[in-house]
Amino acid sequence: MKHLNWIFMLSMMLLTFTACDDDDDEYTGNNELFLLADGEKTLVESEDKVIDITVQLTHTAKEDVQITFEFENKTTTDANVLAFETNPVTIVAGEKTAKLKVKSQNKGVVTQNNTLAVKMTSATDEKIILNAPLELTVTPDPQFTPLTEEQLALIKGYQDNGLDLMPWIGVIPVEVKINYPGGGYAEPHTKPYTKSISGKTIITLSENATADNPALVMTENAMGLSEYLYQILKDVTVLDSENWTPQPDPQKVMEMLNWNKDSEETFDVKLDNLVFNKADKTINFVSDNKAKDQYDDYIKAVGFEYNFSAWNRMKKLIEEKNQDAIDKSTNDGTANPEYYLNITNIDSDEWYEKNWVKASSSFDASTGEMKFTFCFDHHNCGDYVKAEVTYTSLKN
After folding, report:
1. pLDDT confidence of residue 16
2. Is residue 132 packed enough to be buried (19+ CB in 10 Å), middle (13-18) or exposed (0-12)?
3. Strands 286-287 and 193-205: what pairing?
4. CA 396 to CA 381: how far, in whole Å?
């Protein structure tokens, strides 16, 4: 009897597995469609970059299905800023995914951050429904302010002494390689990932530059990391519906600032005092009096400065002596990016894991390359993030 019972149980298990395998064949309800950006969801209007989007069904297509998309502009009336390279797309029978490609039309019409939503307009299978539009952001071209006569005189003095900084002054292309080993305390930072970022940085002569101190400043998109760091900031604050947004202090701050996952915000990163050393062709870019840990103590780190619209609103309330803003400005709930980003010393391995790297740099005017390698961390991570940054002069 026990033997027969065992055979019966085994048969039921096999039937269950078979039913699971045939689930897509038997399913007759709606087939939900998801749009997933494969990488960054932001591009500069003049960038020759393609955003790859995975078009993914919940259930496999029973036959070839053709899906058509359109843009809906969320911030202006002009929806023709972006164009599809592949539209419509076809998901072949037996598959769940296809690729949708988007690029800028490079019209030169974007004067502020422009958000567009990718929406499904039609599908040859009427049971396919879109889960949610995918929002993409197009930013205006960076604008470089010409050097003053005084700045040009300093540049000429450096050149006369064998140091040419002109290859890296202007709107300079940047390529970034990101490596994160995973181990974070909350999604989406629990799993390892690598990421490549292309962009442009505005670089000019620092206000701290003197005849004896050849220093540059990255005024916009420092180290090519503005969008990446902003995404992390959102991940650990307004997008963290499990650990952050349910807490009383974050809720109070979000209400006070009208700051949430859907609010239109601006974010940028600046890095000043990149001092060039002619003798060994390196650049001093790590500081000990800019970044702070969560105990408000200075640390050795890349001295990023953040310009974040929600934090600017909070600082204004603090200046106006708003006690709630004052009380919540230095704890888990503040809109201050410095509280969440770049919060551990990088002079040595304080995570005791495996991704720490000693900060280094180099420059070569003959090739036009300027390189940086460094690490940083953030709230909820499990180790350092490693960044390898390469600038290539347009003049070479």
Report:
1. 44
2. exposed
3. unpaired
4. 39
CA nearest to 176, candidates 393, 355, 386? 386
- Burial group, residue 25, by CB count within 10 angstroms (0-12, 13-18, 19+): exposed
Half-sphere exposure of 24 (CA within 13 A, CB side): 14
203 exposed, middle or buried (CB, 10 Å; 0-12, 13-18, 19+)? buried
The partner residues of 244 in beta bridges, in order of sequence, read none
Note the pTM of the prediction, 2 decimals.
Answer: 0.78
Q: In the numeric block, which tokens belong to residue 95?
A: 């598959």
Cα separation, 137 vs 116, whole angstroms: 6
The DSSP secondary-structure symbol of 144 reads P
At residue 334, what is the residue type?
T
Cβ neighbors of 194 (< 8 A, separation 6 or more) are: 177, 178, 179, 180
Residue with tokens 């990446």: 228
The pLDDT assigned to 79 comes to 59
Query: Which residues of the chain, if any, have pLDDT below 70?
Result: 1-27, 76-79, 395-396
